[in-house]
Amino acid sequence: MSEPVETVETTPEVVEEKQRNKVLLTEEGELTDKFFAVLRTVFLKYARLTSTTVKVKRKGAAATVQHLRTDEEKARVAALGRKEMNAFTRVTNGEDLPDEQWKEVTEYLDTNDKGELTFKGFIGLYALQTGALRRAITLPAAAASTRVQDTEEAETIKDLKAWGYDPETLDYTGIVVAPTPSAEPAAAEAAEEKDEKKEEEDEVAAKVEQLEVK
Length: 214
Hints:
Shape: elongated
Number of domains: 2
Oligomer: single chain
Number of strands: 5
């Protein structure tokens, strides 16, 4: 009896997804060099430089201080504070980052001594979101287990489009697909207004009832 032949799904959607995975992640589960470079470019667009110089240590020589020259050097001293992060998320998600999410980001990802997100933390954020196994930071066990299971490559694809990049090639096209703000805050606000209106109506009804009794 012959062994069953394993069928491999080859629909256009599956082929496209596999091709996209190769663009974002290597076979070893790392961020690809091109995706890493894109993230660095985007990070530096919004980040604030905390210094104009950087210490450089060359083999066989003492460390020297020099002015920032390359994006790699700039990324080492740049960071996203609350203001910079909001500017980034407005472009990426269409709205400011909620306070709870900012607290979570700065609690689990790498920050500087001012509590600002470093490039290492930014890379960690996208490594986790995209499902990379490496080039990510080490999280506490409980946090890591929940976040790794909750990775959403679709979110990364959406972000790339919002930045003007083609997610299939990671080439910059300048064609920006504007994000749609979450409906949750608006829904919550509408529900709160409805509750307040009901309380006012109940209060008025109670006063009218008191007058009628008198």
